[in-house]
Amino acid sequence: MTDIVTLEKPDRRRPEPLWHQAETALRGLIERGEWTAGMQIPNEDRLCELLGISRITVRHALRNLEEAGFLRREHGRGTFVRAATMVAGVRGLTSFTEEMKTLALSPGTRLLEARLLAADQEVADALEIAAGDTVVQLRRLRLGNGMPIGIQTAHLPEARVPGLYEAAHEVQSLYTWLKENCGITPVKAKEVYRVGRVAEADAELIQQAAGTPAFEVERIAYDRGGPFEYAISTMRADRYEIRSTLHI
């Protein structure tokens, strides 16, 4: 277990709630690398002492950090810093790059392959184009803090994204590039999550053994002109979570 010699205590004179100040202080330790992945953090009593706040306030801050993917609690053992983890649930429509930044993870993308090809029936139906129409296919390795999170294969109608194939090696945030160069701004997306396994061809890239359970995510993204992206992703199950809040 790690401890902290000094930690900025919440200031009751500030307008921000005490739990928010505590959350920010603890999150800073993770972002600065003072608390590293897999490290056990001090228990609630010690955090109350270090921060000068109540147990309820500490629990509020810890719960928010856990929900954001920074911490994990293990029953009977304690609370630990998570490895880079992407948490999916109720959220706005964002690019992978934007989502990584929201989770305070450094986004990274490695282009594995860019191709022009004729759309098969599955891709054509998803993009509402004719089978045989030309699409740009981008196969990319997605990274968070330098560690592989998933592999994504995206298809976009060439007629709507002129210049993308030629610029593919320079594109980091696809949605930013589409907005700036093609006037495409996403307005909604449909996603389907399935349980799958890491393919043998992807095992080395994603740093997991072939056959390891993984999430398969199918996504169709739309702007006001209709669907512009059909993507299939394989996401590491140990670095990607799905959480939902259910209401009566």
Describe this structure in words.
- This protein is an alpha+beta fold and 248 residues long.
- It folds into two domains: 18-81, Winged helix-like DNA-binding domain superfamily/Winged helix DNA-binding domain (Arc Repressor Mutant, subunit A, Orthogonal Bundle); 86-242, Chorismate lyase (3-Layer(aba) Sandwich).
- It has eight helices and ten strands.
- Helix 1 (18-31) packs across helix 3.
- The longest helix has 14 residues, at 18-31.
- It is elongated.
Features:
transcription, two-stranded antiparallel sheet, 6-stranded antiparallel beta sheet, transcription regulation, DNA-binding, Arc Repressor Mutant, subunit A, alpha+beta, Chorismate lyase, 248 residues
SSE inventory with pairings:
Blueprint: H1 18-31, H2 44-51, H3 55-67, E1 71-74, E2 78-81, E3 86-88, H4 96-102, E4 107-118, H5 121-127, E5 134-144, E6 147-157, H6 164-167, H7 174-182, E7 188-197, H8 203-206, E8 213-223, E9 226-236, E10 240-242
Parallel strand pairs: 3-10
Antiparallel strand pairs: 1-2, 4-5, 5-6, 6-9, 7-8, 8-9
